[in-house]
Amino acid sequence: MNHIQEQIQNYIVTQFAFDHTALDPAEDLLNQGIVDSIGILQLVTYIEETFHIQINDDEITPENFRSLNTLTNLVMQKVQ
Amino acid sequence: MNIPKRCDVVVIGGGPAGSTVSALLSQRGYEVVLFDKARHPRYTVGESLIPHFWKYCELTGVDKKIAADGFIQKSGGTVIWNGVIRQMQFKDFGYPRPALHVERDRFDHILLEHAREQGVQVFQEVAAASIDLDHGERTSVLYRPNGEKTSAEIGCRFIVDASGQHALIARQLGIRVIDEGFRFMSIWGYFNNSKYIAADGRAYPFAKLRDIPPTTFVTNVDGWGWLWHIPQRESTSVGLVLPQEQMKAIKGSDEALEGYFLRRCREIPYLDRLLEGAEYCEGSFHVIRDYSYRPTELAGPGYFLIGDAAAFTDPIFSIGVVLAMYSAYLSAWAIDRSFKQPQRTAGNQAIFAKQFMTRLEASRALALPRYGYGGDEGEMVKKSIQFETSLEQELMYVVSTLTTRSENFIEMCRKKEGGMITSSKYRKLAEIAF
Predict the structure, then answer these.
(1) Which residue of B has its CA nearest to A67?
(2) Residue A30's closest chain B neighbor by CA?
(3) Positions of chain B with pLDDT lower than 50, given as ranges
(4) Which residue, of B67, B92, B122, B265, has the greatest Cβ tally within 10 A?
C-alpha cells in the first residue's frame, strides 16, 4: 500500500468506517455503505486539500469512488 | 424588524430545504438571512417521510428535537396497484431510524426554530420579490415585509432559492421547464377516525395507531392516477393525484372539486372500507393545480436552486423532503468551498448541479410514467443507482415493482452492467383483513 492509499484509508476509517481498522483496497465502499452521498463530498474536499489537486464534476463518478484502489488511481493520475 | 443591508447568504423560504441549508452555513460561521413570506407554523402538504431524512437532521443537530416530538412512526408501505396488493417494510432494508408521518406545520417549524438557534437571522412574513444577479459581486434580493408598501434590498454573495413551488428564481429567469407529458393536479383533505393498514396486512381502528404502526397506503385510481392515505396524530390525510386532462370534466370551482373528492373517497376500493365510520374534517379541502417541472440550470452566477424551487416530480414515493434536504446539504457544501476558494465557484456549482440532477433524474424515472429518456438522462440514472449501497439499490428495486409507474427505472436497472438488481424484500397479499 503506497503512501497516498494509506492516507486515504486512514481518512475513510476515521471518518466513516468505525468498525474497521483497515480496508481491503478493493472493498466496494459504495455498495457496502461505507461512503454515502454526504461522504463522497467530504472525500472530495479531503482529497483536494491533502494532495493539492482539483477534482472536476465529471470525475465524481461511481467508477472513481468505488474503492481505495480506484480513489488512489484518481489521485495518482493527478499528482504526477 | 432589523434586516441587515448585506450578509453572506440569503435563503428564500423556510421549509425543510431552506432551514437545512441555512443551519449548515450558519454552523460554519457564515452570516445567513432567511426570508419566509409566511409565519410558522404554517400549513403545507407532503407528510410522509422515508427514513433517509434522518441523516441530514443529524448533521444540523435537529434530529433529537424531531425524535422528541412523537410523530407517528410508520413501518412501511402498502401498495394496491391494479388490484395486486404488495407490502414492504423499512426494517428489511437496515435503516436504524424509522420513517415518519408528520404534520408539516409542526415539522417545518421545528426545523426553522432550530436554524434560528444556530444563528440564522430568520425574518418571517417577508416576501422575496425578485433577485438581481447583474452586478457580479453585488448579487442582491429585493424583499418586502407583508403589509408594507415599499421594498428594500439586501446584498449578498449567494442566494439560495428554497421557495418551494413558487420557484422564484427559476420563474424570474425563465428557466423552468414543465413536463408537458405529465401534468397532474392534487386534491386532498383530512378525516377523523379512519382505519389504517398495518404491516401485517390487517386494517386497524385509528385508536391503535400508537400500538401498531401504520403503513402509508397508496393505490392507483383510473389508470395513471393514485391516492395517498397517511395517518397522523390527530387525523388522516387522504389525497388524489390525477392527470389534468381527466379533471377537465369537473368544472373549475373548489366546491365542485370537493364534492368530487368526497364522492371518490367513498367509492374507491379499500379506501371506502378504511373510511367506514370516519368523519371528514370540514374545511380541510385543498387543491394544487400543479405539474412536474425542472429547471434548465440548477445553479448560476450567485444563485442555487434547491428543493421544490428547483424541481418537482409526482410525489408518489415520498422523496420530496429527502431531495430537499440532500440539495440543501449539497448547496451548503458548494457555498462553503466557494467562500474559501472564490476562483473555484463555477466548478463547485457544476458539482452541485451534476450531483443534484443525477438524483432528480433517478426520482423522475421511479415516479413518472411515459417518461421519454434521452441518452444522457439514462446514463445519469445508472450512475445514481451505482452510487447507492446494495440495500438502497434493493429498496429502489422494490419501490419500482410496487406500481406500473417505474418502467423507465426498471429499464435502467436492466441495462446496468452485471445484470438486474433484484430483491425479494416485499410480499404479495391475497387480501387486506378488515
Answers:
(1) B387
(2) B389
(3) none
(4) B265
